[in-house]
């Protein structure tokens, strides 16, 4: 049995021996940790290197994806700004079509009202004739009927002109809008394709890193670790 050295020697001045013994015990934990770190570094250093290398490569893959996505966002924002300018220009170019739409809508309403008025005046004139109204009443009704007829004919002619103008401008504008939409869809498809390719490329890189990690771990045998520690 080891002699009681501590009992004989650690009373200390001002009863400070306890603190010395306690801190020595704590230092033992530190020593144990330092020993464990030493063994770990000696034995598993190659393994940690494999982990570190793979982790750094994976981090670079994700950073590369973030960079590509940021570039893609800038491209989308730029396209959005170009769209605003393009739409403003298009709005000016199709202003004539909008005017033609408003014109034919207005004339269509007026034509419908004039038709209803024409029919009403014709019916009224026929009613007076059948009921044996005075000649004066019939003549007054005839004047109103003729006026309604002339107004109706006028709006029929106006409608025909407005319809021809509307159809021509609307045909041109519809084609313009289709061209714009086709260009837009092509551009959006290209952006989505770029996003898909970026993600696909990163996934391939990550797969390569994983495969490399598996191969490196497979090549790091227990025998090689022991040999490394012995060196």
From TrEMBL:
Tell me which Gene3D superfamilies the record gives. Arfaptin homology (AH) domain/BAR domain
What is the protein name stated in its UniProt record? FCH and mu domain containing endocytic adaptor 2
What's the domain of life for this entry? Eukaryota
Q: Which SUPFAM superfamilies match?
A: BAR/IMD domain-like (SSF103657)
Q: Does the keyword Coiled coil apply?
A: yes
- What InterPro entries does the record tag this protein with? AH/BAR_dom_sf, F_BAR_dom, GMIP/FCHO2-like_FCH
Record key words, sorted: Coiled coil
F-BAR domain ranges (all copies): 1-225
């Amino acid at each position: 049995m080891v002699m009681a050295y501590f009992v004989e020697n650690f009373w200390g001045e001002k009863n400070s021996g306890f603190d010395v013994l306690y801190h020595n015990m704590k230092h033992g934990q530190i020593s144990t940790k330092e020993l464990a770190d030493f063994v770990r570094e000696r034995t598993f250093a190659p393994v940690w290197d494999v982990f570190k290398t793979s982790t750094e490569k994976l981090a670079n893959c994700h950073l590369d994806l973030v960079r590509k996505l940021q570039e893609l966002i800038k491209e989308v924002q730029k396209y959005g700004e170009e769209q605003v300018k393009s739409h403003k220009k298009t709005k000016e170019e199709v202003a004539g079509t909008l005017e033609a739409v408003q014109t034919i809508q207005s004339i269509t309403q007026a034509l419908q009202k004039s038709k209803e008025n024409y029919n009403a005046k014709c019916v009224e004139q026929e009613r007076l004739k059948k009921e044996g109204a005075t000649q004066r009443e019939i003549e007054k009704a005839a004047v109103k009927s003729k006026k309604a007829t002339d107004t109706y004919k006028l709006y029929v002619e106006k409608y025909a002109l407005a319809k021809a103008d509307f159809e021509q401008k609307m045909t041109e504008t519809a084609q313009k809008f289709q061209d714009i939409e086709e260009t837009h869809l092509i551009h959006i498809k290209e952006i989505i394709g770029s996003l898909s390719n970026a993600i696909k490329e990163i996934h391939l890189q990550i797969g390569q890193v994983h495969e490399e990690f598996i191969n490196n771990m497979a090549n790091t045998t227990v025998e090689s670790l022991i040999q490394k520690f012995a060196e």
